[in-house]
Amino acid sequence: MQNTIINALTSLPHEINKLYGYVDIPGDNFGEPAINSGPCAPFAKLFYECWNARFSKKVNIVFIMVKNSDECWHVLIRLPNGQLYDGGFGLHDDSKYKDQFDIEDMLNFELKLLEQRAYGLDRDYPRYCPNFSSAKVKALIEKYLSKIEAGDI
């Protein structure tokens, strides 16, 4: 990935984490970015829509599933170069999840499946991310994607 893309994709989670912070309630997700504890699916959907409307090399949505179950642990993006991406950690690879979870790529977008795995996309997140705003997140995504030229991808 070129520096322009890396800089944009690295800066976006920093700004989101500054806005929403980190989980400060004891539990499995203590210290994790708040955006990844509930509104990860709305972030992924917004990023998917914004990126795919802008660039010819498409991204797809990925589900991190609890092994041997139908429980979705996290929703994020697979970039055209194969890396994973979310609003809290940013760029990372499959090794973050492979040992403990199953990784399921949604190669063809299915809103019904995303809604099901996200336990609803249009809801509040009072416990971990009470001030979540799709409009604010979309504006941030657009801000950072606008720094990337189509030729960079």
What does this protein look like?
With 153 residues, the protein is of the alpha+beta class. It has one domain. It is built from four helices and five strands; from the N terminus they run ααβββββαα. It has helices spanning 3-20, 40-54, 111-117, 134-145, and strands spanning 60-66, 72-78, 84-86, 90-92, 101-106. A five-stranded antiparallel sheet has the order 4-3-2-1-5. A hairpin with a 5-residue loop joins strand 1 (60-66) and strand 2. Helix 1 runs antiparallel to helix 4 (134-145) and helix 2 (40-54) runs parallel beside helix 4 (134-145). The radius of gyration is 15 Å and the shape is globular. 33% of the residues are buried. The model has no long low-confidence stretch (mean pLDDT 94).
Summarize the SSE layout with pairings:
Layout: H1 3-20, H2 40-54, E1 60-66, E2 72-78, E3 84-86, E4 90-92, E5 101-106, H3 111-117, H4 134-145
